[in-house]
Here is the input.
Amino acid sequence: MKEVLYGKEKLIPVVDSVDVLVVGGGPGGLGASVMAAQNNCKTLLAERFGSLGGMAFHGEVNPFMYNHLDKKSLDRPVFISWCEKMVQYYSPAELERVPFDATYGSTLLSKDFAMLAMEDLVLESNCRILFHHVLADVIKEGDTIRYAVFQTKSGLCAVESKIFIDSTGDGDLAYLAGCNYEMGNQQGNCQPMSSCFKMSHIDMTRIPDKKTINELFEKAKAADEIHCPRENVLYFTAINENTLHFNTTRIVKKSAVNARDLSEAEIEGRRQIREFIRFFRKWVPGFENASLHSIASTVGVRESRRIRGKVYQTVEDFHNCAKYPDGIARCNYPIDIHNPDGAGCVCVKIPKTEYYEIRYGALLPENCPNLLMGCRAISVDHALHSSIRVMPPMCSIGQAAGMGAALAVKNGVYPSEIDGKDVRNELIKRGAYL
Ligand SMILES: Cc1cc2nc3c(=O)[nH]c(=O)nc-3n(C[C@H](O)[C@H](O)[C@H](O)COP(=O)(O)OP(=O)(O)OC[C@H]3O[C@@H](n4cnc5c(N)ncnc54)[C@H](O)[C@@H]3O)c2cc1C
Here is the structure.
């Protein structure tokens, strides 16, 4: 097997050589890998865990937030294909509870079926998958990445690729390649992390309205029984009967890209979940016999690095509903900032008949010509990030990165040499709503 020199004296095996390597199998990685593979690139998707899904599966996030123009999903083709595949797994009773409309798109999600559907789509596109490969480093030649280095059960190994797509959510690949980045708000604090969970066996006929639940939450806080900086209880319907989904823990002032902070965040998230289970059973009618249905297997990260790109988009684009010739994805999801420091959320909307566009240049890191960002870590400011980060537009950003990579491979050039207008046109041919 071919080997490559890693560091001054270590030779490591080169386990694969591809046109496009996508690192990270969340919504962004899904869009990127499927679009690159469908456009004739030899594509490999590497993921640190044993299944795809990213926050949709490992973070147990629900539902797919809306990103619509007049009730029509702005995210196609990959996002809608993902939803369609997912709902094929639903039982007739689940489909009756959660009817799916392919025009509207966004829906409640089963994390397990979402994960299975993702794997279906990726494998059907002829993209291969490497699970249990944690990106650990890169080997560069000048500004260009030649190999991604992975930590695996069999030790370090390398994958050679012409083009790399960073879909790690945190911009790990770009960071390891030495790209510039920003974090958080003006104080450097990112949106809080949350550990999601679901409770089942709830007597739905007896649960009070949201206002009453929030009053009980305040009383439990005053009684020193619950310690969570959130201002209210955030919950959603789940596809399972008599089950609710909670996105209500809040872990503030921890960095998702600081290993010790991240470990502490896991413990703090589950500490809050223990309190919430006790709170619901003791204080909230209908929950007396409620069971813990599931807990996210990893803490949910809303925000971390944002890699500086050739184009930097700000919240002004949101307010101005800015459109660009090289716009590669459309978004009208609100500015949605969970307070990085404590209680409260900021939510600002644009009209339902409007949207703004994300530009191809925001996916191109400044100083690394064969790298594309296909995840939430694109080149936008803190406020705009809070809008682009939800799963449907994330899938579209990923698919644009995949298309940029495919055009670069086809033309034998770097993604940074591809005109964003061409990426947009090719996406339209593939069914994108642009
Ligand atoms: C608590 C919470 C609630 C949310 N609520 C909603 C909601 O209701 N609706 C909605 O639409 N969106 C919601 N979001 C936002 C959304 O889930 C994320 O922004 C979105 O999943 C980001 O997609 P991504 O592909 O960029 O990253 P991710 O989903 O994080 O996927 C990144 C993937 O890369 C892998 N990876 C990371 N590092 C490495 C590495 N070093 N090596 C190999 N693999 C790696 C990860 O395992 C993961 O599979 C929420 C987010 C959070 C945290």
In short: Residues 212 and 284 are 9 Å apart (CA to CA). The radius of gyration is 21 Å. The first helix runs from residue 27 to 38. The mean pLDDT is 97.
